[in-house]
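Researcher: Re-running this chain for the archive, since the previous output was lost when a drive failed. Same request as before.
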Amino acid sequence: MEQSVSIVLVGIGGYGNNYLKVLWEESMFNRIQGVVDIAPENSDYYEQLKEADVPVFSSMEAFYEKYEADMAVISTPIHFHTAQTICALENGSHVLCEKPMTPSLEDAEKIIRLKQEKNAFVAVGFDWSFSRIIQQVKQDVLSGRFGEARRMKTLALWPRTEAYYERASWAGKKYAADRTPIFDSVVNNATSHFLHNMFYILGSRAERSAPLKELTAELYRANDIETFDTCALKGETEDGVPVHFLASHAVTEEIGPVIRYEFEHAVLTYVHHEQELKAEFTDGTVVTYGNPENERSFKLYHCMEAVQEQRTETLCGPEAALSHLHAINALHESVPEAQCFPEEITKYDPDTRLHYVEGLDELLKQCYEDWQLPSEKGATWTKQGRTISIPASSLS
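Model: Regenerated structure tokens:
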């Protein structure tokens, strides 16, 4: 890159270590203007930061009193995202914020208006959206190569033990102590990339996602959390494309993401063990795009280039993230209180500390195959939520 881009890293433990890893391996620590973290010693790269004399601050306000930064990279808990994004914008920085941008539609609108006022960009870290592979697929969708979209579905079964929920005080919570929304769940955190990707692929241009029209959900939990560890939803975009999404942490078998996007002239598939996104056309032609999982760090490079080129819009900004945000809010409206799985099928493995549901893996796999929700399979414990209509947004 021709000119250096100065960075303030906000949150350097947890996911923040991934950004530090890239900067360290690419010999770009000299671009770190400062770090903001109340416990920086928990970072895997704390010693390297000390050796590089990178200043450490306990708040963004303290950092901006002494320094400036071209870009703030925010990897803090969900409920801090809004205030920290606004602080960065108010102090003249562009922003790369980890997903989700915010749990609040009202806050999303504030962020969009403020970034426009400040002539700055806010990128939301849905990794796949910044991948060259996904961008090529999206361009092929936009060019009409696949024809009209018919329907889309995704399955992600990712077991998570008690340690996953113990890693942070906000894990699995609906609200912080001050009532700031969190809505941490299987679809607002670990598998959120893949729910977002369905909408993003169908967006009308590179920087947008297809708006969601309606959604019906089923939400369940085997873990002692406020939100849910298992989700099944069906919805429809404003253009009438059906979407199905199934995800769970309360399973024993790790599967996914498994993706099938059906178009008029081709079917796009991604199967986790094959690690290839490919399109199979009706004439027998097969196009292999590659594995977007290998390009998760591209969001950082893209944003650094956007700073250099003085761009005010990125491949995945708040506008592109709105469909996922609408989906999360609609889930909680469709099912205000997630249902506990029946005790007789809820199991616990003391060795792994995994809470899981007997037969859930197979049920969700069958739901995926048949484009159905668990309640449509006739299981007695299931309960379908209300169908929520989502108003059109002037900001989408």
